[in-house]
């Protein structure tokens, strides 16, 4: 069933380079990453060493950091082109770290908003594979990540920022070398839109501490809680301008949702392929799975969800490439990608039965990611509420909404 989905063959929509890279990435994932998934899923130094070894092979093959800025080793500039590559990277939950795509967002952030010192001290080592980023936004004292509730603070004195506070559900805390932290840099009565800033903090700074690792559904995914106690960093570690934290956060969320959605669709396609293999296997035929109406319903619904998500992501990606404000398209694409992954993974688990919920297949790990996708980068409920409000407000001024 792998050839049914129009993953790499959309010649009218993507450049020849993107199609070639998508094919090469798929081959690398199939041959180098998927056979090692059980080893990569284990905690400890052995899995980290294996990941580093595979990352070096990806770098040697010219497949590492494909969506980094072109000025820093990237090979694809357009989000729409990157879609078919990101899908192939996303077919294993371990690929983004091995192929460097997990840090592409930070690479663009540091280049676009960073000072010369930030680019030299953090961006250059990161694109060389010698530094690992993380991002601290959500705080344990408050639900979600509402900007008005951020209490982590930073004050400027004698050319240094001094940071105090706590963040949790911070990615890569088990190995990050620096964290971009969202902190309050203004007085309490300052408008939220001008009160927050982003500051880059080395993980070896005095006063910086990883408080604990946080397992997700009983598995370590690199999430953790960190604290800042009188952490001092140079003033030039400020991203953007003082008080621009909300704007930077919005930019990061929009781009991050796009990149993550593309990977999720890749995982959904993996589940779809596993469904097809199961149905047409000897065991599947002996159970007459191809003949069952409900099995066909599972397949049809998964296909519809994946195809719809891919189309919505492409629309949103075109808007980003055109530098057009398109929060509605980005948020709807994120919701659709999450739903596609949830539907495809749930259907695949159901068709595999007991094997699907065990460690005998990759489905249990994918299912875990599918459930978190409804929360990461904005919960479904908050995004639906935001999109619904904006659409209702649109009709206060206009009579017709023209879809792109």
UniProtKB/TrEMBL annotation:
Annotated keywords: FAD, Flavoprotein, Oxidoreductase
Assigned protein family: Belongs to the acyl-CoA dehydrogenase family.
A Pfam family hit: Acyl-CoA_dh_M
Domain Acyl-CoA dehydrogenase/oxidase C-terminal: 243-391
Record text on subunit structure and interactions: Homodimer.
Taxonomic source organism: Nitrosospira multiformis
Domain Acyl-CoA oxidase/dehydrogenase middle: 135-231
Reported cofactor(s): FAD
Name this polypeptide is given: Acyl-CoA dehydrogenase
Keyword NAD set for record: no
Acyl-CoA dehydrogenase/oxidase N-terminal domain mapped to chain residues: 17-130
InterPro entries assigned to the protein according to its UniProt record, in alphabetical order: Acyl-CoA_dehydrogenase, Acyl-CoA_Oxase/DH_mid-dom, Acyl-CoA_Oxase/DH_mid-dom_sf, AcylCo_DH-like_C, AcylCo_DH/oxidase_C, AcylCoA_DH/ox_N, AcylCoA_DH/ox_N_sf, AcylCoA_DH/oxidase_NM_dom_sf
């Amino acid at each position: 069933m792998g050839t049914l989905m129009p993953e790499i063959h959309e010649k009218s929509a993507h450049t020849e380079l993107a199609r070639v890279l998508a094919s090469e990435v798929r081959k690398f994932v199939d041959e180098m990453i998927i056979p090692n998934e059980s080893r990569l899923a284990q905690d400890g130094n052995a899995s980290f060493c294996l990941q580093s070894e595979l990352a070096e092979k990806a770098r040697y093959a010219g497949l590492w950091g494909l969506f980094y800025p072109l000025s820093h080793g990237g090979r694809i500039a357009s989000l729409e082109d990157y879609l078919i590559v990101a899908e192939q990277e996303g077919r294993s939950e371990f690929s983004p770290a091995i192929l460097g795509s997990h840090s592409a967002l930070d690479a663009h952030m540091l280049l676009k908003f960073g000072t010369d010192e930030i680019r030299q001290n953090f961006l250059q080592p990161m694109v060389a594979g010698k530094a690992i980023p993380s991002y601290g936004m959500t705080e344990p004292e408050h639900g979600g990540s509402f900007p008005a509730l951020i209490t982590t603070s930073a004050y400027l004195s004698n050319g240094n920022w001094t940071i105090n506070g706590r963040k949790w559900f911070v990615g890569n805390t088990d190995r990050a070398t620096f964290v971009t932290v969202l902190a309050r840099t203004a007085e309490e009565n300052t408008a939220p839109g001008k009160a927050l800033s982003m500051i880059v903090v080395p993980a070896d700074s005095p006063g910086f501490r990883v408080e604990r690792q946080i397992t997700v559904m009983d598995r370590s995914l690199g999430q953790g809680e960190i604290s800042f106690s009188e952490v001092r960093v140079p003033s030039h570690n400020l991203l953007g301008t003082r008080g621009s934290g909300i704007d930077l956060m919005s930019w990061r969320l929009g781009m991050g949702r796009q990149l993550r959605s593309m990977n999720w669709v890749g995982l959904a396609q993996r589940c779809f392929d596993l469904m097809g293999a199961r149905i047409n296997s000897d065991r599947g035929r002996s159970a007459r799975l191809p003949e069952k109406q409900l099995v066909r319903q599972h397949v049809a619904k998964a296909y519809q969800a994946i195809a719809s998500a891919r189309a919505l992501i492409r629309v949103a990606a075109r808007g980003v490439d055109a530098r057009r404000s398109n929060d509605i398209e980005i948020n709807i694409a994120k919701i659709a990608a999450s739903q596609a992954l949830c539907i495809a993974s749930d259907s695949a688990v159901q068709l595999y039965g007991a094997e699907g919920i065990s460690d005998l297949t990759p489905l249990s790990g994918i299912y875990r990611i599918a459930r978190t996708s409804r929360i990461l980068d904005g919960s479904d409920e908050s995004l639906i509420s935001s999109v619904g409000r904006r659409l209702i407000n649109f009709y206060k001024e206009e009579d017709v909404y023209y879809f792109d």
